[in-house]
Amino acid sequence: MNGAHLPGPAAPTPSALAALHPLPLAAVRLTPDGLLGRWQDRNATATLPHCIDQLDVQGNLTNLRRVTGDSDAEYRNMWFADTDVYKTLEAAAWEIGRTGGGFAEFLTDVAALLEKAQDADGYLDSYYQVDRREQQWTDLGFSHEMYSAGHLIQAAVAAYRATGSAQLLGVARRFADLLVTRFGPAGADVVDGHPEVETALVELYRLTGHEPYLAQAKRSLELRGHRRLGEGRFGPRYWQDDQPLRDAREVMGHAVRQQYLLAGAVDVAVETGDAGLLATAERLFTEALAHKTYLTGGQGSRHKDEGFGDPYELPPDRAYAETCAAIGSFHTAWRLLLATGHAKYADEMERVLYNGIAGSTAVDGRAFFYSNPLQLRTGHDGSHEDTPSQRLSWYSCACCPPNLARLMASLHTYAATGDDDGLQVHLYADGSITAGGYQLAVRTDYPWDERITLTVTAAGGPGPWTLALRVPSWCRDARLSVNGSVVRTGAQEGYLRLNRTWKAGDRVELTLAMPARIVAAHPRVDAVRGSVALARGPVVYCLEHADLPPHLSGTLFEDLELDLSRPLELGTGTLAPVTIRVPVLVRDDADGSLYRPYPPSAVGDGRAATVPAIPYFLWANRAAGPMRVWIPVAATR
Amino acid sequence: MNGAHLPGPAAPTPSALAALHPLPLAAVRLTPDGLLGRWQDRNATATLPHCIDQLDVQGNLTNLRRVTGDSDAEYRNMWFADTDVYKTLEAAAWEIGRTGGGFAEFLTDVAALLEKAQDADGYLDSYYQVDRREQQWTDLGFSHEMYSAGHLIQAAVAAYRATGSAQLLGVARRFADLLVTRFGPAGADVVDGHPEVETALVELYRLTGHEPYLAQAKRSLELRGHRRLGEGRFGPRYWQDDQPLRDAREVMGHAVRQQYLLAGAVDVAVETGDAGLLATAERLFTEALAHKTYLTGGQGSRHKDEGFGDPYELPPDRAYAETCAAIGSFHTAWRLLLATGHAKYADEMERVLYNGIAGSTAVDGRAFFYSNPLQLRTGHDGSHEDTPSQRLSWYSCACCPPNLARLMASLHTYAATGDDDGLQVHLYADGSITAGGYQLAVRTDYPWDERITLTVTAAGGPGPWTLALRVPSWCRDARLSVNGSVVRTGAQEGYLRLNRTWKAGDRVELTLAMPARIVAAHPRVDAVRGSVALARGPVVYCLEHADLPPHLSGTLFEDLELDLSRPLELGTGTLAPVTIRVPVLVRDDADGSLYRPYPPSAVGDGRAATVPAIPYFLWANRAAGPMRVWIPVAATR
Question: What is the pLDDT of residues B558-567, one digit of tens each?
């Protein structure tokens, strides 16, 4: 079976609440002429092979071989290390679906290992299967057993959709059936401390049509919020268990858990026709964007509990902004986009993709940030794994790298959707799109170039068909032409819609003006008061120490201020195709005291200079050194 | 034996490196007419009894009775819960020395319990003495066994100095002797993950003259910094073990550990005549004040590891500023003051006392902050023990309350010192001072009133004698008169020195002008850019929600800005004798978006109002609500 006609991740059934539907896996192809296509290729040639290597090096596969009796090594890594295997499997599956090649043996071999390791009743968790059998299901708050089952299920769904292989699906269904038996209506009223199984079970339902999976996902969602998990280390808010999701007024607690829970809630809502639950998810996601999200789309302000902070608590230096939380936000946004068709969710997908997510991977694809701060200070102590000065090749909690791999391998599936009227393009990248009998060639160097050209290479039916093109919320000047003629059309819900009869050769050109933009934060964001950020198109920029001329290096990086009396200009660089040339003044603070009378004594004018800002997602690819997204604005002197 | 002629905490021997020496315990008496005296009385009548109650309620004493076979209850609380007992004992001892009354039975009973619980070889640690004997000394990174020994020793030294009782001293010496035997030059090269035993052993040496205690303290100090403790949870910097203290360029890691280590280093340095080590401690303490200290004197910017952050990383909302770190800073400053005579250390004692330390205790003396943020936001999640919205009566890790009790019970001993020429007054409070045959009556309502009157009630020898009065660094206008005549005398090293022949009835009046001050931070402190703080005298002020008129309450607290076009004025209040009446504008931010184009669209003028600021140390004594020390400055409109 060829899965190319099945959809990618998170594909609602025909009866679901849905404004838009995903396209089949093979509908969108991205080329390496565009940035997203290059990211996908880098993932295939570097990140995914690196993850597969690490599964060997770090002992994740050996953990499973302990279960099958093929190893007598000690268990290694986090107790949920199986999920690194599952996410890597999922990535391999999507990659096979995308390009056909390279990872089939890995997928088959590991699926066979999992089949062999699985208990007769369906249980599978290498941490608990050898010398901790008596502890199975005894510590659901932290054991991650259902979380792990969820990632197994997602890998199996991906393998089936992308390769047609049902081998892993059998393993996943046996585990899912065990969950239904053990924790279904006839079983114990428990939830896992880490949401994930909810969205996975809905996906499994979507693939199999087996209603108990959907019911179990819904049950898991409804059981949460009644303090069944106890206090744990950080209180019930940490795992969103202090009140039912429907009653929550804000996102709270562990950011990844919150986003995975929201994604599961949307999945359950659309498949069960629960408009109230969908509204809850929309409300909470919107609340997060309004009060608890970094300019990069990153979420989670606190290191201690990897959690959301209070409203407007968004310190750039201590931003946790975990890579997996950004991926979780992307997943939730995708589900809300499908459910509602609202462009704001695609806007958020774009923002977090180009910034909070993209910044986590090194240019070589083999090193990663787990936390993604928006500032690194001179004198930063990078000795902690949660605050490194540069990306690390792996982590003791290695959730992020394989999560990146599975997202990147499936990235093309998020670029466009369909509905009864036509096609919606959400993410712009060089490639091709096939939908409803139409074929489009997309040529663009987005996000560096502001022009996107879409050429109809094959037209579908004779009647009219609507091509909807997202105008990002950051864009103040979108120009659209068809076959060279400028089209005047108002954006609706963030989309420019061209409803017409198409013929092969028709050419649409969308130009999204991309001047360098200066961005301010709500004044309640105390941590960046008096500072602004720079952006162009969807890309947030930053100043990095490596770009300073030698006479401005050292601690003077801390004294740079934006000089608004001179214009920003665009430039080019080796690391980044487009830089922003930033006029700065080097603050001259003769008074070195930490606290001093106000107003301070007169200071000099500061030395004027111009330094390039680079895309935030490219920081920390050169010598380790300070960086900042938010730049103090020089006061009028 | 009456200990009134022995000194208080941290008393160098006559041969130590010392510019100043502590006065005998009975030399300074504070009256309840002054704030410090009232704090001491509140400690005696509320905090200390509360701590003693909690030792029963929480099971700390039961833990010890398990060892003596008088209880078969489970061990409760942190594994180092014995230290809560020791610090409470120390507080009781100082209090007995101060007023004679009330706690003798507690001291005697618990000392007897400890005697009974102690092993024959001197070991004493109720966590490890019953069912974890085989784990003794096996986990020095986290076991706190030597840390616990240190607090036992300090309690014993206090009991001897304050009450003359050697009962506890016997217990402490036996444990100290065990440490010397087991971990001395003939023993294992190990250090404890939490410094404390160093300063305690030096104090024990000071009291007993037994050289091996000093040698063991020095050895413990020198063994640290060679990564013997391993990585732990937060890496070797966490416990100051990544490099020898002498090589350290900045304070780092867990703030309490760092300060306790510095205090021990000063003690070792002055007793061994190690000027280089003393210089190291001065350098590191000064570095902390220059880059890593809150305006309140609090230290520690991070919740995750209770640690210092990077230089200038001083977020007011996420300030950890642990009470014990503030107390540790006070202890280190006291030792440096004695060693050097530099007023800057007394300045720091004053700052951290009136702000970082004082703010931790509720006005009723029975509730405490463990972390001491400088800002609490509207919508704050106070459900975590490390970020409560109001003070808690006790903590699962209860280190801070008894630490406050022992400091407050001995507070009078830090007010003044002597040297060969006379007396130095460092902390001003209503009371009396006896030194060198002179007696002084001190009358003042400091820090509310700017006048301090010192009257000689008994004169010592016939020759000249120097009365040195500290002029705090915050003071820009100090006026001094003797017997009504203004004296022109330049401050030297921060002290106004009156060298003259004194007679009974001589009257010195010092006036330290206390206008409301506006304080700015170094521009590298990104977290408070565009904001200022208010202070008067040594007291930092804050805006608190409870003081807002109803029409400005709710989330509008977040929108207050300081209106510098109108003057600050002083006022009075019920909670605070002196308030600062702060002209504000309520920012009118019609654009609610989290991020927006810069410059923002025009905003209104804001509503003008005047709200009282209260001393920071009095916050959170009314209804829970937001608070801020750093106030945004309204831009010119």
Answer: 999 999 999 9
Parts of chain B belonging to CATH 2.60.40.1180: 417-512
Which candidate in B282, B306, B348, B509 is catalytic? Answer: B306
All CATH 1.50.10 domain ranges in chain A, comma separated: 3-375+388-414
Q: Report the relative pairing of strands B531-536 and B631-632 from DSSP bridges.
A: antiparallel
> Do B589 and A528 lie within an 8 Å CB cutoff?
no
Q: What is the pLDDT of residues A355-367, one digit of tens each?
A: 999 999 999 999 9
Judged by CB atoms closer than 8 Å, whether chains meet at A311 and B378 is answered as yes
Supply the pLDDT for residue A490. 65
The DSSP code sequence of B271-285 is HHT-HHHHHHHHHHH
Q: What is the Cα–Cα distance from A484 to B461, expressed in whole angstroms?
A: 105
Question: Which residues on adjacent β-strands are paired with residue A627?
Answer: A376, A544
Instruction: Look at residue B234 and give its three-state secondary structure.
Output: coil
Q: Which CATH architecture has domain A419-512?
A: Sandwich (2.60)
Q: Enumerate the CATH 2.60.40.1180 domain ranges in chain A, comma separated.
A: 419-512
Evaluate if residue B488 carries a pLDDT over 80.
Answer: no
Q: What number does CATH give the domain B417-512?
A: 2.60.40.1180
Terminal CA-CA length for chain A:
71
A322 labelled catalytic:
no
Element of type H or E holding A497: strand A495-500
Answer yes or no: are the C-beta atoms of B207 and B157 closer than 8 Å: yes
**ipTM over the 0.85 cut-off:** yes
Using a CB-CB cut-off of 8 Å, the residues of chain B touching A519 are 595-598
- How close B588 comes to chain A (CA, Å)? 10
Contact residues for A462 (Cβ-Cβ < 8 A; gap 6+):
A501
CA distance B370 to chain A (A): 16
Calpha distance B534→B532 (Å, rounded): 7
In the Cβ-directed half-sphere of B237, how many Cα atoms lie within 13 Å? 19
Mean pLDDT computed over A310-329: 98
pTM for this model (two decimals): 0.96
CATH code of the region B3-375+388-414:
1.50.10
pLDDT of residue A492: 65
Residue B272 and residue B211 in contact, taking contact as beta carbons nearer than 8 Å? no
Determine whether B475 is an active site residue. no
